[in-house]
Write a structure and sequence with these properties.
By secondary structure, the chain is mainly α. 82% of the residues lie in helices and 0% in strands. It contains 13 helices and no strands. Helix 2 packs across helix 11, helix 11 runs parallel beside helix 13 and helix 12 packs across helix 13. The protein starts with a helix and ends with a helix. 45% of the residues are buried.
């Protein structure tokens, strides 16, 4: 408890906790739909697109977040259209866009500033990178993501499990698929400051997979995923501070440990029931 109070005495850590918890919650809620739709790796692909966009922004002196958000949202839209209207499968499309964007970002970085501290913080994450402006923007956009998710919950549920039935029921499936992709794009960009492009997809994948070990209903998985993501983020930050290790890697390993615990508990439950 003393270590936690000491940790909270630093303004930059409080900013990181505030911004990170909101982004973690958004990523976990969206992750349930993405994992069930077999689109979980879109987070990894969009994070690489964001890295390419922010590399260009830093090279020309623009605001990284203000450039990355519209670029990644546009990439999410085109990625969805490519997989729906062509013979290219979703995993191949994600890999193609991911590799191309990362390569472009690396070339722009090498030709301009080199691998500076700013670029490294986006690549691997840094709690020192969270400014007051970043937290404010994260709070506003996270609230928008949460409100849209709650407001469109029933439609997203239908689209996630059976697109044909949802389309027959009058749901604009394409519109809600685009909404999921755009909300994911915003969440990815906001989370890159903390987790980095290499690890941000873990906030989408791990909580959903962990919650599915214990719950079968969509509502149960969504609620458990959101709570679990926030708790794992906080525990990971505490361990990062106490052990002096990178925050992003610490949060990922805490999520991995939670998955192992839930998997073990589910396995024991099946044995006892049998």
């Amino acid at each position: 408890m003393e270590m936690i109070l000491e940790m909270l005495s630093y303004p930059f850590i409080v900013r990181a906790l505030a911004g990170g918890m909101m982004v973690s919650l958004c990523a976990a809620l969206l992750g349930v739909s993405l994992v069930l739709k077999r689109y979980s790796m879109i987070g990894d692909g969009l994070s690489h697109v964001s890295f390419g966009a922010l590399s260009v922004a830093l090279a020309v002196g623009w605001s990284p977040l203000k450039v990355s958000i519209p670029v990644v949202a546009l990439a999410a839209f085109f990625l969805l259209r490519i997989t729906e209207n062509s013979r290219i499968k979703s995993d191949a499309a994600i890999a193609m866009i991911s590799a191309s964007s990362l390569a472009a970002g690396i070339i722009v970085t090498s030709l301009s500033t080199g691998m500076t501290t700013d670029v490294s913080s986006y690549m691997f994450g840094s709690i020192l990178a969270m400014s007051r402006e970043d937290v404010t923007l994260s709070a506003i956009l996270s609230l928008v993501v949460l409100c849209l998710f709650v407001f469109c919950y029933n439609k997203l549920f239908a689209v996630t499990f059976d697109e044909n039935f949802a389309r027959a029921a009058g749901v604009r499936v394409e519109r809600y698929n685009v909404l999921i992709a755009l909300l994911t794009a915003v969440t990815i960009v906001l989370g890159m400051r903390m987790m980095g492009a290499m690890l941000i997809s873990s906030l989408i994948i791990f909580p959903a997979l962990t919650a599915m070990r214990m719950f079968k209903s969509f509502r149960g998985v969504v609620c458990c995923s959101g709570i679990l993501s926030v708790v794992c983020f906080f525990v990971g930050m505490v361990l990062s501070y106490g052990l002096s290790v990178p925050a992003g890697a610490s949060i990922v390993l805490v999520n991995l440990a939670a998955y192992g615990l839930f998997w073990g508990a589910a396995a024991v439950g099946r044995i006892v029931t049998f």
